[in-house]
Amino acid sequence: MGLFLIPAFALIGLTGHAWSENIGWLSFQGPAHQVTIHDETGAYGGYAWSEHIGWVKFAGDRARVCSATEGGDCSNVISSNVSGWDGVIKLSGANYKTEIVGTPETGCSLSGWAWGSDVVGWLRMKGANHGVTLERCIVPPEPPKTYDLSCEFNAGPRVLIAPQKTARLTWSCIDADMCSIAPAIGKVTPASGGGITVAPKSTTTYTLHCENDAKQSVDITRKVEVIKSQLCEINPADPSCE
Fold it and tell me: Using CA atoms, how far apart are residues 168 and 224, in angstroms rounded to an integer?
């Protein structure tokens, strides 16, 4: 029997036995056979061995097996490859399924049932004295980071009356990777939030610009108005008042 080799890093070997009342033990690894799962696609591959029905070929995609939306015979992923029986073992059905259980810390194994019609009958993956284990767990990839950029930008006080000199600009952002304030201030850190003191000489509109790695951006403006007092002290020695 020839085996097609796939890069080793992509395959997870299965060891141990499943049990059927009809055909007895089904071995998942031996000197001339090995059942594997592709750690990226979830596809089963390789061969198992039964003394009663011979070689059992594994071929199928885990995602397709588990998808109810595709319908049809998507669960028919194991078939015999020997004389004496030519049928299909189903890994999932209306009220049963074979699934991977466990964690990287405790180890992973197959659990549940498969169905092989009248010849194989029920195939149990895990029991008191048998089981099928994975040499390592399939670790699902981390989901891509989602962004929902939002910011608040405030200035206080909004009105400066001489001789008052300064105002405070504050910002607070979610999912921002870079923020800047114009005019003249430039990049501010941290992007998640902070504050800065400004001393405008005249009425100024400040703009907070923030963006993130998902190419989302937001711009918020706040105006600080500078008013010169119209009151002055009349000096008897100098009656003019500018």
Answer: 10
